[in-house]
Amino acid sequence: MIDLHTHSVLSDGALLPAELARRAYVAGYKALAITDHVDSGNLAIVLFQLIKVSKDLNRYMRIKVLPGVEITHVPPPQIAELVDLARKLGAKIVLVHGESPVEPVISGTNLAALKSDIDILAHPGLITEREVKLAKRRGIYLELSARKGHSLANGYVAKFAKKFGAKLVINTDAHSPSELFTPEILRKVGLGAGLSEKEFRGVLENSSKLSRKSNK
What is residue 182's predicted lDDT score, i.e. its pLDDT? Predict the structure, then answer.
């Protein structure tokens, strides 16, 4: 099991990165991306800390920890420059906080994110057909979220991703220990979004592929 979207105390999560990684390992995860919320004010600071702690944890733990960021609630014209900065500073996984149905994300965020060098558009909500096609063309993964609220649009996202051939991943968006869900819960998230068993297994393989690519 691989999770490419989690949060620690370096943003609004409940756990230190080390405890998050340890709990994820005990729960059966093989790899974990810690992708704390950032904007222009804290990106460099948070990423520096995550890179440092990830190196330490990867020396001593059996779970693979990837340092990343989730660019969150920033003006759409600023997204590309922050994505480029995150890459320059060493982020292994770059997410943008998409237009979730339960938060007042600025309209145009999904499109600006998909025009940038991101890995995953997190919980993209009522994403447009044009944007799904753009995700497909650029090889950007769309997220099915296991998190309460964000998950409301999972069926919609899965429907159009399958229609246009965009790649999907399933992530917990964990902010607390109780949100490091079991494989069976994540399976229910996938099937509940309209995936077949075969499609669900393919989505899990997408996470593995992205994890391996990001670790190079």
Answer: 93
Q: Domain map of the chain by residue range? A: 2-214
What is the C-alpha separation between 13 and 112, in angstroms, rounded? 26
**10-residue stretch averages of pLDDT, the chain, 216 residues long:** 97 98 96 98 98 98 98 98 98 98 98 98 98 98 97 98 98 96 95 97 96 85
Model pTM score: 0.97
Contacts of 63 (CB under 8 A, 6+ apart): 21, 22, 24, 25, 29, 30, 31, 32, 57
Q: Please provide the CATH number assigned to the domain covering 2-214.
A: 3.20.20.140
- Backbone φ, ψ for residue 140 (5° rounding): -95, 135
**Exposure of 89 by Cβ count < 10 A (0-12 exposed, 13-18 middle, 19+ buried)?**
middle
**Two structure tokens written together for 57:** 């944890």
Query: How many angstroms separate the CA atoms of 155 and 127, rounded?
Result: 11
**Three-state SS at 85:** helix
What pLDDT score was predicted for residue 10? 98
Instruction: Give the up-direction half-sphere exposure of residue 31: CA atoms within 13 A in the CB hemisphere.
Output: 20
111 contacts 131 by C-beta, under 8 angstroms: yes
Which residue(s) pair with 171 in the sheet?
Answer: 145
